[in-house]
């Protein structure tokens, strides 16, 4: 998939935005062909050099950019020439989906294996032990805390896990909701 096609995809845009943030997004969204220096990018995009460098290093850490160093013979200064490697984006997104899947499974089990209580006034949720420590009263407002049914949350996580398993073509981990 070409850079242009990738960058049109809203999922890819969101992924890049999550990585580099709003200040780094102009760098991530405008990858030049070939090599470019951080100074050239900053000037071309009218951005602060530190914001460009921060975005480039984040892209580098996520295998979406690489660089090579050149040393000026006279001054000894190093120049970094950056190349964008967005071919890795689909693989990175798939890894993120696996991480999300694992985190959701872990959280779903936590929700299933704990009893929760809720202060309806403050919307604060407590585990059973915490609620018991507070005498089943909210420490913020003194209202009684009520047993909370988290089945909707568990079911929503289950649905999301199933959707991820379908998309990732992995064996179902749980048949029950």
TrEMBL record:
Domain of life of the organism encoding this protein: Archaea
Coiled coil: 93-120
Signal peptide start and end residues: none
Membrane listed as a keyword: no
GO molecular function: DNA binding
Pfam family, one: TFIIE_alpha
SUPFAM superfamilies per UniProt: Winged helix' DNA-binding domain (SSF46785)
Keyword field: Coiled coil, DNA-binding, Transcription, Transcription regulation
InterPro entries, A to Z: TF_E_archaea, TFE, TFIIE/TFIIEa_HTH, TFIIE_asu, TFIIEa/SarR/Rpc3_HTH_dom, WH-like_DNA-bd_sf, WH_DNA-bd_sf
GO biological process: regulation of DNA-templated transcription; transcription initiation at RNA polymerase II promoter
Keyword DNA-binding tagged: yes
HTH TFE/IIEalpha-type domain sequence ranges: 8-90
Domain writeup: The winged helix domain is involved in binding to DNA in the preinitiation complex.
Family: Belongs to the TFE family.
NCBIfam families in UniProt: transcription factor E
Assembly, per entry: Monomer. Interaction with RNA polymerase subunits RpoF and RpoE is necessary for Tfe stimulatory transcription activity. Able to interact with Tbp and RNA polymerase in the absence of DNA promoter. Interacts both with the preinitiation and elongation complexes.
Physiological role: Transcription factor that plays a role in the activation of archaeal genes transcribed by RNA polymerase. Facilitates transcription initiation by enhancing TATA-box recognition by TATA-box-binding protein (Tbp), and transcription factor B (Tfb) and RNA polymerase recruitment. Not absolutely required for transcription in vitro, but particularly important in cases where Tbp or Tfb function is not optimal. It dynamically alters the nucleic acid-binding properties of RNA polymerases by stabilizing the initiation complex and destabilizing elongation complexes.
HAMAP family (UniProt xref): TFE_arch
Protein name: Transcription factor E
Originating species: Natronobacterium haloterrestre
């Amino acid at each position: 998939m070409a850079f242009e096609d990738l960058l049109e995809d809203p999922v890819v845009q969101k992924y890049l935005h999550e990585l580099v943030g709003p200040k780094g997004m102009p760098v991530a969204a405008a990858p030049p062909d070939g090599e470019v220096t951080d100074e050239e990018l900053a000037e071309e995009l009218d951005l602060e050099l530190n914001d460009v460098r921060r975005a480039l290093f984040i892209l580098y850490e996520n295998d979406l950019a690489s660089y090579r160093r050149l040393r000026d013979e006279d001054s000894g200064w190093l120049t970094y020439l950056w190349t964008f490697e967005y071919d890795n984006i689909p693989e990175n997104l798939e890894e993120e989906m696996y991480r999300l899947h694992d985190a959701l499974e872990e959280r779903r089990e936590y929700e299933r294996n704990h009893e929760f209580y809720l202060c309806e006034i403050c919307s604060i949720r407590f585990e059973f032990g915490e609620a018991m420590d507070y005498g089943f009263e909210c420490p913020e407002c003194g209202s009684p805390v009520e047993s909370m049914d988290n089945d909707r949350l568990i079911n929503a996580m289950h649905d999301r896990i199933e959707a991820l398993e379908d998309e990732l073509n992995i064996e179902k981990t749980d048949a029950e909701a």
